[in-house]
């Protein structure tokens, strides 16, 4: 019974460490945690050892323990004794290291990770049982009894798989962070980008990307590498802004490193020095910063004088204050068009969001027809050109696009005809009507293929100008998108609706479904995949 309990605890610890390793190596997915300390612990400099996430060591330890315990009944007496010592020694080392990590959480980070506590308790009980095995070893079983123990262990292993796999899948699909309170539009205008912010790309671009980063944050380094590639790919299409958000409580060297980058910026070397600091984030001591500055080709004496004087501290504090006012609470945090995204972005997702925002910006800038101009459809199937009338004329700017779900669905955002907004109840009526309304999914093709309202067709916003004329004008049209975040509630649906309305579609037949696919699913309505 004791050995079965040892194996069960080892498998519990293995599941715990495997899940932690998954979220540590997939940091864009928030961790499922009771309380609020898990992300603080994961983002800290203590989450890695020699460049390897700590849960990887836990996986290795628990796999080794499980194998040793499983092998115990099948080996000769002398080897069985050696295995008992090995289990006690490994669990003892794990217990001491867990004790150290628990002290870090309690006295340094002041944050508790539930999964870390579970692992610490598991290894503590394993050590207690392993010690009991050494002090009072059970008599060697007869072959028949040993075979029964092996079978029991095998059944336990299979039961762990049966329970663990669906539990892991469930956890992997959950863990959304608490919603961020969106900043007011005037706050975004005043505090998102300052006149002296560090900018790359085209200062006059229609789309601005703002990153709030922490140079000591382990997950910020790969995120910055992706951001660098984005700056290279999109060039003059975007304006990219970097702002500092050092989390000094968990990254004690981040604030001084941020000041050091600004000292480098005073010598015209901001971006290259930022990249060098991220590569060397394992050592951000004063001597290391000076060495990195020398490698970047800076005047080191001037750099050291700037850093020691604290001349850049006020600038870093201003970035911090602006970030907090905007709702930033973790690093990295990106602002892309209407979206505020917490956590690192994979390159493909980053590109997708940017392409979507560039298409929206283009739709908002599209010229509007003069009142007297009749709408006509050219033989090519595209919409006719419209007379001048730009985003500036409508009073809508890049910054007024940052808004929460309610403001994003405002009926009077732009100074041109808007599609009428409907909720889930009315969308359901359109779905069940005779003849049935045409549901048009304005998301990208990949998203559409992953799930859609039954019978919907896919026509992304950036294709609406060219292909929208192919939609039937004698049928009700319901436009929708994902509805899963403030930027995906109904902005693209409304922009698509405006394209249709200014090109001859009846306002009585065009609707924007503001709850999107998320609202449809939440109401228990069918989804086609």
In short, what is this structure?
Helix content is 52%, strand content 9%. With 529 residues, the chain is an alpha/beta fold.
Strand and helix map with partners:
Blueprint: H1 2-25, H2 38-43, E1 48-49, E2 52-53, H3 54-71, H4 77-109, H5 114-135, H6 143-172, H7 185-191, E3 198-201, E4 207-213, H8 220-234, E5 238-244, H9 254-265, H10 270-279, H11 286-295, H12 300-309, H13 313-325, E6 333-336, E7 339-342, H14 347-365, H15 391-394, H16 405-408, E8 420-422, H17 424-432, E9 438-441, H18 445-450, E10 457-458, H19 464-467, E11 477-480, H20 491-501, E12 510-513, H21 516-522
Parallel strand pairs: 4-5, 8-12, 9-10, 9-11, 11-12
Antiparallel strand pairs: 1-2, 3-5, 4-6, 6-7
Radius of gyration: 29 Å
Reading off the top of the CATH hierarchy, the class of the largest domain is best stated as Mainly Alpha
Structural class, judged by helices and strands? alpha/beta
Global geometry = flat
By CATH, the architecture of the largest domain is named Up-down Bundle
Q: Largest beta sheet, briefly?
A: 5 strands, mixed
Q: Helical amount among residues, as a percent range? A: 40-55%
Q: In CATH terms, what is the fold-level topology of the largest domain?
A: de novo design (two linked rop proteins)
Taking pLDDT < 50 over at least 5 consecutive residues as the criterion, the unreliable ranges are: 368-381, 384-414
Lateral strand order in the biggest sheet: 3-5-4-6-7
Number of helices: 21
């Amino acid at each position: 019974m004791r050995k079965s309990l040892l194996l069960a605890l080892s498998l519990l610890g293995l599941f715990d460490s495997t899940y932690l390793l998954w979220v540590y190596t997939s940091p864009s997915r928030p961790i499922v945690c009771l309380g609020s300390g898990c992300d603080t612990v994961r983002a800290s400099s203590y989450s890695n050892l020699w460049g390897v996430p700590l849960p990887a060591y836990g996986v290795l330890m628990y796999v080794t323990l499980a194998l040793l315990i499983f092998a115990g009944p099948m080996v000769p007496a002398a080897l069985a004794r050696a295995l008992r010592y090995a289990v006690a020694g490994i669990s003892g080392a794990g217990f001491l290291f867990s004790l150290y990590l628990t002290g870090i959480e309690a006295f340094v980070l002041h944050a508790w990770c539930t999964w870390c506590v579970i692992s610490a308790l598991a290894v503590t009980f394993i050590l207690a049982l392993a010690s009991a095995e050494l002090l009072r070893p059970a008599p060697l079983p007869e072959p028949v009894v040993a075979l029964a123990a092996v079978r029991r262990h095998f059944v336990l292993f299979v039961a762990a798989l049966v329970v663990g796999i669906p539990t892991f899948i469930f956890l992997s699909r959950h863990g959304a962070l608490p919603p961020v309170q969106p900043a007011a539009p005037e706050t975004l205008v005043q505090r998102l980008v300052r006149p002296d912010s560090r900018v790359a790309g085209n200062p006059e671009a229609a789309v601005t990307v703002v990153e709030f980063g922490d140079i000591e944050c382990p997950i910020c380094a790969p995120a910055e590498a992706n951001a660098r590639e984005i700056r290279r790919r999109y060039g003059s299409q975007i304006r990219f802004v970097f702002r500092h958000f050092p989390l000094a409580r968990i990254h004690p060297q981040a604030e001084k490193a941020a000041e050091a980058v600004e000292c480098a910026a005073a010598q015209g070397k901001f971006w290259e020095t930022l990249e060098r600091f991220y590569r060397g984030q394992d050592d951000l001591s004063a001597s290391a910063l000076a060495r990195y500055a020398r490698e970047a080709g800076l005047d080191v004496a001037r750099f050291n004088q700037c850093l020691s004087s604290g001349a850049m501290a006020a600038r870093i504090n201003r970035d911090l204050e602006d970030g907090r006012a905007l709702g930033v609470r973790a690093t990295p945090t990106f602002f892309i068009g209407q979206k505020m995204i917490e956590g690192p972005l994979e390159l493909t997702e980053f590109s997708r969001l940017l392409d979507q925002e560039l298409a929206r910006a283009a739709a908002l800038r599209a010229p509007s027809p003069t009142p007297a101009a009749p709408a006509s459809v050219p033989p090519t199937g595209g919409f006719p050109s419209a007379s001048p009338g730009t985003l500036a004329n409508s009073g809508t700017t890049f910054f007024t696009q940052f808004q929460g779900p309610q403001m994003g669905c405002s009926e009077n955002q732009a100074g041109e005809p808007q599609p009428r907004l409907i909720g889930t109840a009315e969308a359901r009526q359109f779905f069940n009507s005779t003849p049935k309304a045409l549901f048009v999914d304005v998301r990208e093709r990949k998203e559409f293929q992953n799930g859609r309202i039954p019978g919907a067709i896919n026509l992304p916003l950036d294709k609406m100008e060219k292909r929208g004329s192919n939609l039937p004008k004698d049928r009700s049209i319901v436009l929708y998108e994902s509805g899963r975040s403030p930027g995906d509630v109904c902005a693209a649906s409304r922009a698509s609706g405006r394209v249709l309305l200014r090109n001859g579609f009846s306002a009585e037949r065009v609707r924007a479904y503001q709850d999107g696919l998320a609202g449809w699913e939440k109401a228990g309505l069918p989804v086609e995949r």
